[in-house]
Amino acid sequence: MSADLHLHTNFSDGTDTPEVLVALAKTVGLTTIAVTDHDTAGGVALAVAKGAELGLEVIPGIEFSTDDYNTEIHILGYFIDLGNAAFQETLKKLQKGRQDRIYKMCEKLQKMGINLQAETVLTLAGNQAPGRPHVARVMVQEGLISNFRDAFRGYIEFGAPAYTEHYKMKAVEAIKLVLDAGGLPVYAHPGVSKCDQVIPDFVAAGLAGIEAIYPLHNEGQTQHYINLAIKHGLLITGGSDHHGQESGRRLKLGEFVIDDKYVEQLKNEHLR
Ligand code: AMP
Ligand code: ZN
Ligand code: FE
Ligand code: FE
């Protein structure tokens, strides 16, 4: 009995459809998953339906990229009312920002001698929330670079010459948006953002949980964030951040799981 509360589909930069992801989750023995695409909930309904068909619990989720404190902070939202008007309005704005950014990023790359067309990237992405992994994948496919990692390292990672911003909310805005839409906001992979000083502000804004259990957290970090969650009276969550079978990441679905007790606590908080 195990769960994974952080998964991406091809509605953002994952490579599997929601249906394939859910079927695979069932096959590898997960009991509960959450679909948490970047700046879109487009894949949630399909995943929930497939979960109902196969007998696997699918929690609706999202992962917002936010912009604050000179770093990138991701806020997960669980159990959001997807029909909420402010939530839907914000998604439109975020997605337009992501699409515009692909054009800007390709312009920068072209100036650097990388002949990449925005239309090619948008076609490959085939969704409303295109991201940098789509750019990196097309660079590899078109033979413009030898591998995905080098595309990030040399061109599009934070601080690299073709890195391009897109419209983002402030983290506290995202927390409030999730709360106003009936959801539970969780600070994603805090050990990646390395910005613990923000946590009291997030708690004051209504943060519900911390994603303490995450593949890039070492044992010390995991314990540190579990302690912080306990100190602030927050939920502990976790997930693999799996991006699909073709994403090139080493960790396979089902290899990084969390105990069901964390899911129970999350569900109880939602029902409270
Ligand atoms: P975006 O939301 O479009 O800025 O893209 C974020 C995605 O890019 C996330 O899924 C990250 O896992 C991935 N990513 C960010 N930085 C790197 C990096 N240096 N190497 C590989 N993937 C990265
Ligand atoms: Zn991603
Ligand atoms: Fe993230
Ligand atoms: Fe993620």
Structure description:
This protein is of the alpha/beta class and 272 residues long. The protein has a domain at 2-84 and 185-271: Alpha-Beta Barrel (TIM Barrel). 45% of the residues lie in helices and 17% in strands. It contains eleven helices and eight strands. It has helices at residues 18-27, 44-54, 85-111, 118-125, 132-141, 148-156, 171-180, 190-193, 199-205, 219-232, 260-271, and strands spanning 2-7, 32-35, 57-68, 71-78, 184-187, 209-213, 235-238, 258-259. It has an eight-stranded mixed beta sheet with strand order 7-6-5-4-3-2-1-8. Strand 2 (32-35), helix 2 (44-54) and strand 3 (57-68) form a beta-alpha-beta unit. The radius of gyration is 18 Å and the shape is globular. The two termini are 24 Å apart. The mean pLDDT is 96. Adenosine monophosphate (AMP) binds next to helix 5 and helix 6.
Give a nutshell description of this structure.
The chain is α/β, with parallel strands linked by helices and 272 residues long. 45% of the residues lie in helices and 17% in strands. Strands 7-6-5-4-3-2-1-8 form an eight-stranded mixed beta sheet.
Q: What average pLDDT do the residues reach? A: 96
- Percent of residues in beta strands: 15-25%
**N→C terminal distance:** 24 Å
Tally of helical runs: 11
Q: Low-confidence parts, pLDDT < 50 over ≥5 residues?
A: none
**What's the CATH first level of the domain at 2-84 and 185-271?**
Alpha Beta
Q: Biggest β-sheet: count, sense, barrel?
A: 8 strands, mixed
Rg over CA atoms, rounded to whole Å, is 18 Å
Quote the CATH topology of the domain at 2-84 and 185-271.
TIM Barrel
Please tell me what the overall shape is.
Answer: globular
Strand count: 8
Strand order of the largest sheet: 7-6-5-4-3-2-1-8
Taken in chain order, the helices and strands follow as EHEHEEHHHHHEHHEHEEH
Bound compounds, each kind once, are: adenosine monophosphate, zinc ion, fe (iii) ion
Provide the CATH architecture of the domain at 2-84 and 185-271: Alpha-Beta Barrel
Proportion in helices:
40-55%
- Judged by helices, strands and strand pairing, the structural class is alpha/beta
Under CATH, the homologous superfamily of the domain at 2-84 and 185-271 reads Metal-dependent hydrolases
InterPro entries: PHP_dom, PHP_domain, Pol/His_phosphatase_N, Pol/histidinol_Pase-like
Protein name: Phosphatase
Domain Polymerase/histidinol phosphatase N-terminal: 3-68
Pfam families: PHP
